[in-house]
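Consider the following input, taken from an annotated entry for Exodeoxyribonuclease 7 large subunit (Malaciobacter mytili LMG 24559).
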Amino acid sequence: MNAPLSVTALNTQIKSLLETTFLDVYVEGEVSNLTYHNSGHIYFSIKDENSTISCVMFKGNTKYLKFQLEVGLKILIRGNITAYTPRGSYQLLCTRIDPSGQGALALAFEQLRNKLQALGYFNPENKKSLPKYPKKIAIVTSPTGAAIEDMKKVATNRWPLVEFILVPSLVQGVEAKFDIATSIKYADSLNCDIMIVGRGGGSIEDLWAFNEEIVAMAIYEAKTPVISAVGHEVDFLISDFIADVRAATPSNAIEIALPDINEHRIYMDNLEYEFNNKFKNILYSKEQNIIYLKRMYEQNSLETRFNLIASEIKMLNLSFDNSFKNIISSYQNSLNLLKNSYDLSNPKNKEKKGFVQLSKDEKIIDLDEVKVNDIVSLQTPNYIAFAKIENIKKQ
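Applying the prediction step yields:
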């Protein structure tokens, strides 16, 4: 009869058998009993309707895990079976984990975006406004990429007065996220007006560093306004959502950050034209005002007043002369009338043969006014005769 095995020996044989038999397994299941350990290892189980198996992903492999494991998430695991001899238990040692039914990167993107959005990091009130005329701009990007050359070319044509500070950074690869975050923090200490963070186009894997939480937090915590300029217009990264402004491309970031010098030249020309017109209008207005004041002065000057008074005196003299002449003429006319009346009444002018002036009580009367016994006078220019009426006979 064979000698019995010790527990350790049996577990050791089982461990050897499992690890040599299940070198590369590919399994699908739902995550449960999830624990992210302080050591960086991830412990969890996967299950289906009938069974459960313990799993572990050690720290060395977790850095390749793009998304966050969540309880209830269905995943695909590639790895191998290993046994833990002291407890006689076995588990699935994971080397790669992908979400079931969708890409790991897409899931990681949605997870981080939802997390940051729930924290309010995308809220418009948290966005800083860009200065209109920046003097100094920090650019966090690769010093050898095409993006920096494109940005320099656009800046030269658009607003050559600005100063650029290049903060070199890795923009691709596993270590890029740490380098970008460090470069953002350094650029934030340079007291620049704007910070541009980005790179040229590439695949989602090439751009992935800008989807990392460490980069997102560095952008959010920066005091300098940040423009995210990653990839092309169709590419949307976490950095685009959390930055103060999103640019479609690195060149577009320069167009957003800098004013257009040609537009300002046109503006200055228009401003000069408006200034000249306003200046001419002001001069014309002042000239008209001076002419008016001069006219008012002339109208109210002593000389004008003296001339006016002299004119009034002249008019008064003329009026007096005319009035005096009118009075003299009136008196002359009256005298002429009296003279004519006198001439008409003068007996000498009335003397005719057989005619005398009949008077009674020194009043000239007609013959039909006399009565019998009246004493009347009969007068010619040379004689006066007194008579008594004896008889009156009417013809």
